Amino acid sequence: MGNRLTEIATRTGDNGTTGLGNNQRVSKNSLRIHAMGEVDELNAHIGLLLCEAVPQDVRDLLGDVQHQLFNLGGELSIPGYQLLQASALAQLDEALAHYNAMLPRLLEFILPAGNRAASQAHVCRTVARRAERTVVALGNEESLHDAPRQYLNRLSDLMFVLARVLNRVDGGDDVYWRSVRLTQQQESTA
């Protein structure tokens, strides 16, 4: 693995390249760098979500997720290296099962809205999906392990579920899309 940063303003990227963890220089516009950047952005958005009042179990889970995203970024920074473990994916699967069991069945699509914490969880969901798309594109160009793609896919699902959970913390609910179908169903049952 490359050297740990001891100085931030190195000026080595002034020519439009950056160093990977194996000391290889690549364009800052490469798919690998885009993927790493989007994982980093996702981690920052989760950090912002953690500034909100969220239940302790969600806080603990998201703290673990931040560490796993750092592992995922490390894996992406070293071609061929595997850092993300199967236990990280299992943790997301368990959390999905746990939190989904608490929620009522969806009646319709929901809007990315509600309270601040839920809305921020939706931002995390969309950034996770973008990161996943970039990892898929990178995997189409270069050999990648399955774990980064799978982790981002599961994490996006979890952020959707957590948004629903967080909207209920103070007795709130999902913000449903006002679709024609749902409106007609509600009118016919009234």
Automatic annotation (TrEMBL):
Region Disordered: start-end pairs: 1-22
The enzyme's E.C. designation: 2.5.1.-
GO BP of this protein: cobalamin biosynthetic process
Catalysed reactions listed for this entry: 2 cob(II)alamin + AH2 + 2 ATP = 2 adenosylcob(III)alamin + 2 triphosphate + A + 2 H(+)
One GO molecular-function entry: corrinoid adenosyltransferase activity
Compositional bias ranges of the Low complexity kind: 10-22
Pfam family, one: Cob_adeno_trans
Domain Cobalamin adenosyltransferase-like as annotated: residue spans: 8-165
Keywords: ATP-binding, Cobalamin biosynthesis, Nucleotide-binding, Transferase
Entry similarity comment: Belongs to the Cob(I)alamin adenosyltransferase family.
Listed NCBIfam families: PduO_Nterm (TIGR00636)
Quaternary structure, from the entry: Homotrimer.
Protein name (Swiss-Prot/TrEMBL): Cobalamin adenosyltransferase
